[in-house]
Amino acid sequence: MDNSLRAVIFDVDGTLADTERDGHRLAFNAAFAEFGLGWDWDAELYGELLTITGGKERIRHYLEKYVPDELSRSGLDDWIAGLHQAKTRYFVALLERGGIPLRLGVTRLIHELRAANIKIAIATTTTAENVTTLLKSTLGEDSPSWFDVIGAGDIVPKKKPAPDIYLWVLQQLGLPARHCIALEDSENGLRAALAAGLDTLITVSDYTCGQNFSGAALVLSDLGEPTQPFTVLAGNTHGRIWADVEVLIRLNG
Ligand code: XBP
Ligand code: MG
């Protein structure tokens, strides 16, 4: 067994949980309604907008493409930030109601990694408050402290697909990329992780299943459970039917 795996770095949206279509999207729409904007991001449009990572960046992109007259608002940056703060408020409230569960196999794998003394970390473009609220609402009040590093949101200047958030997390972990694995669900996330030198396991989501995952070490339907095996979309799991620590160690070997 190759024991070089020291840390697993998780993406959040789409990887830990299916947060986008029935989470972030609804929170954006609630904020738009609060601001009296009359905009509605339906599930299909949201899929297109998801190519832009980061909520504030996504709103700006929407303005540029669909409502360019809004770009002449005075204090545009502050206005977008205020709108996004309202969106975060709605999203956090949804999480606190227990509205979004973790994906199949995530809780099990996190517990297995902790038991194996492999560090766990987060690298995400979403807002830090969203991450801690998701963790607390699903894994328990003290669960954010299980993560050695949580890298989120505006902590780095460039969001995924730039490698910045992964490089920042690696630096905070004090580990070289070769001792770590990234778990992602999207092409933007994969590009960010690969550019940081990380072997990457993809679990696809509804929005990302058609994307290009060339370069990924493994592409799975989900992490699976002993009673609910994953489907292998690319790569070799050496006969294993759910993603456990052993599968990750072999990827890292
Ligand atoms: C997630 C994102 C985020 C969320 C919304 O990407 O792009 O912007 O959609 O969160 P990843 P915020 O899974 O690669 O982290 O509105 O807080 O940005
Ligand atoms: Mg993601």
Salient structural properties:
globular, Rossmann fold, 7-stranded mixed beta sheet, 7 strands, binds magnesium ion, binds xylulose-1,5-bisphosphate, DNA polymerase, domain 1, 2 domains, 253 residues, alpha/beta, 11% strand
Low-confidence stretches: none
In whole angstroms, the N-to-C terminal distance is 8 Å
The number of distinct β-strands equals 7
Biggest β-sheet: strands ordered side by side in the sheet: 3-2-1-4-5-6-7
Give the fraction of residues assigned to helices: 40-55%
Estimate nothing, just give the exact number of structural domains: 2
Give a description of the structure.
- With 253 residues, the chain is α/β, with parallel strands linked by helices.
- It has 2 domains: 7-18 and 101-252, 3-Layer(aba) Sandwich (Rossmann fold), CATH 3.40.50; 20-96, Putative phosphatase, domain 2 (DNA polymerase, domain 1).
- Helices cover 41% and strands 11% of the residues.
- It contains 9 helices and 7 strands.
- It has helices at 20-34, 43-49, 55-66, 76-96, 106-115, 128-139, 164-173, 187-195, 245-252, and strands at residues 7-10, 119-123, 149-151, 180-184, 199-203, 218-220, 232-234.
- The protein has a 7-stranded mixed β-sheet.
- Strand 2 (119-123), helix 6 (128-139) and strand 3 (149-151) form a beta-alpha-beta unit.
- Helix 1 (20-34) crosses helix 4 and helix 4 runs parallel beside helix 6 (128-139).
- The model has no long low-confidence stretch (mean pLDDT 96).
- The chain binds xylulose-1,5-bisphosphate and magnesium ion (MG).
- Xylulose-1,5-bisphosphate binds at residues 11-14, 20, 24, 53-55, 124-127, 130, 160, 186, 188-189.
